[in-house]
Backbone:
């Protein structure tokens, strides 16, 4: 819904020749967009526990430039697999983004580390194992160790 406003702002700031605002993107072209991107920028003002779009970009080997809100800092390690910025510090954010874009080799290295992060921390199997453990612990606490429940999850 904000695409037109963002395009007007880009034009006003004289950056419309350097950026492309896509708005909603069909899944059929999403991987091509990731492949051709230098950096994935996620300046959300929302406090999120997790962000699927962020994880997709990281899985596609992109360095991420992301607002340090919510649980993002548990996944994005500043300078290793992306760059965190303060959403309330526009000048500082701009300086950090400029520094990223001026160092393509660093972006490639951070992108590789971003992919490693996804593989080590965010796969379905890892999520399943953690979730199963949480449920087992909850059941054990609930029954106060009187009844040991065996949970079986089929994938």
Residues:
């Amino acid at each position: 819904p904000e695409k037109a406003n963002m395009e007007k702002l880009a034009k006003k700031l004289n950056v419309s020749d350097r950026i492309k605002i896509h708005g909603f993107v069909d899944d059929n072209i999403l991987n091509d967009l990731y492949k051709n991107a230098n950096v994935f920028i996620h300046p959300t003002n929302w406090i999120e526990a997790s962000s699927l779009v962020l994880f997709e970009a990281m899985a596609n080997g992109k360095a991420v430039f992301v607002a340090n809100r919510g649980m993002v800092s548990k996944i994005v390690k500043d300078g290793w697999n992306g760059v965190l910025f303060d959403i309330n510090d526009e000048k500082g954010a701009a300086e950090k983004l400029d520094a990223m874009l001026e160092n393509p080799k660093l972006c490639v290295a951070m992108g590789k580390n971003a992919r490693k992060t996804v593989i080590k921390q965010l796969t379905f199997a890892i999520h399943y194992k953690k979730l199963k453990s949480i449920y087992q612990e909850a059941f054990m606490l609930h029954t106060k160790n009187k009844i040991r429940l065996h949970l079986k999850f089929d994938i």
Q: What stands out?
A: The CA atoms of residues 42 and 54 lie 7 Å apart. The mean pLDDT is 86. Strands lie at 39-42, 63-67, 82-85.
